[in-house]
Design a protein that fits this description.
- The chain starts with a helix and ends with a helix.
- It has helices spanning 2-22, 31-48, 58-65, 69-80, 84-106, 111-117, 123-134, 138-145.
- The protein is an all-alpha fold.
- It has two domains: 28-81; 88-145, Arc Repressor Mutant, subunit A (Orthogonal Bundle), CATH 1.10.10.
- Helix 5 packs across helix 6 and helix 5 (84-106) crosses helix 8.
- It is elongated, with a radius of gyration of 19 Å.
């Protein structure tokens, strides 16, 4: 009985894996172009720091890359294995961690102010993203750097 259950799990996993692989099969976005777009997006994020924009949307990314919204989503999903907001929030949390470390020394900014500077619109979404990515709260992070 356990063997059958395990076989079903492997079969289900294989099916899901194939579905993901074929999800974007007919979108018309070649692998080479997708990689080019990935590099452009990475450049925009790391050099232009787009993630600091509070109202950043997938449509904004698509417009900057001169592609459709669907293709922008595909580039992020396939190349970074994340959703749009997971991708953006990773950059925001990285920035926040850096600011929290610097702020620890002079304590001039509140956690909410740092969250806002890093592109978050409110404390709740910041805490939720921070905990999801780092597995600790911002306050616990500060204690660990202390």
């Amino acid at each position: 009985m356990i063997k059958n259950h395990r076989a079903l799990d492997v079969e289900t996993f294989s099916t899901l894996s194939m579905e993901k692989k074929h999800k974007y099969e007919k979108t018309g976005l070649s692998e080479a172009f997708s990689l080019e777009l990935k590099n452009k997006l990475k450049h925009l994020m790391e050099n232009e720091k787009l993630y600091l924009k509070h109202e950043l949307k997938l449509d904004d990314i698509a417009e900057l890359l001169d592609i459709s919204r669907h293709h922008a989503s595909q580039v992020i999903n396939e190349n970074f294995n994340r959703s749009f907001y997971e991708y953006i929030n990773n950059y925001r949390i990285k920035e926040a961690k850096s600011k929290l470390c610097l702020n620890f020394e002079n304590s001039s900014l509140s956690i909410s102010e740092i969250a806002y500077q890093c592109g978050f619109n409110n404390r709740v979404s910041f805490y939720k993203a921070f905990k999801k990515i780092t597995h600790i709260t911002p306050k616990e992070f500060i204690k660990r750097v202390a």
